[in-house]
Write a structure and sequence with these properties.
Blueprint lengths: L2 H21 L2 E7 L9 E2 L5 E2 L4 E3 L6 E5 L4 E8 L8 E5 L12 E4 L5
Antiparallel strand pairs: 1-6, 2-3, 4-5, 5-6, 7-8
Bound molecules: 2-acetamido-2-deoxy-beta-D-glucopyranose (2 copies).
The site of one 2-acetamido-2-deoxy-beta-D-glucopyranose has 2 residues, from loops.
Length: 114
């Protein structure tokens, strides 16, 4: 294979990966976490009280973000679904201590089954 072909292949691989990640849809969930004790804030848990516009890692979830909207409404975002490499099984998140979306990185088990 010539150098030109290798370069073209790499360029395609990068573009295709970007296109694929762009199309992968992350789940979004909305909820009402308003609390009269904290008007206008999002009371996600007794420890996690956010102001509108703030984003953080969702509590009680290994890897999701929570964004405080107006009037105590929040938006949860989970990781985009990514197909595992061919012949591999998707395992757990690599490190759920990372912030979102870095925590979305998955481990894969690519041993042959059967
Ligand atoms: C959100 O919940 C609060 C308290 O339960 C309620 O007063 C408010 O009307 C709710 N907002 C919406 C848009 O449902
Ligand atoms: C994640 O954080 C906890 C608590 O700080 C720590 O015990 C654990 O080892 C960390 N895990 C990784 C994979 O870094």
């Amino acid at each position: 294979m010539s150098h030109f072909n290798v370069a073209a292949l790499l360029a395609c691989a990068v573009v295709c990966l970007l296109a694929a990640s762009h199309h992968a849809q992350a789940a979004v969930a909305r909820a009402n976490f308003s609390n009269p004790t904290y008007p206008g804030k999002c009371v996600v848990t007794s420890d996690v009280i956010m102001s509108p516009g703030q984003t953080g890692k969702a509590p009680n979830h290994p890897c999701a973000s929570v964004t405080c909207m107006d009037n105590g409404h929040v938006e949860f975002h989970t990781c985009a679904a990514v197909a595992p490499p061919k012949g591999c099984k998707q395992r757990d998140f690599v490190n759920t201590n990372r912030s979102f979306p870095e925590c979305c990185e998955r481990a894969y088990d690519c041993r042959k089954y059967i």
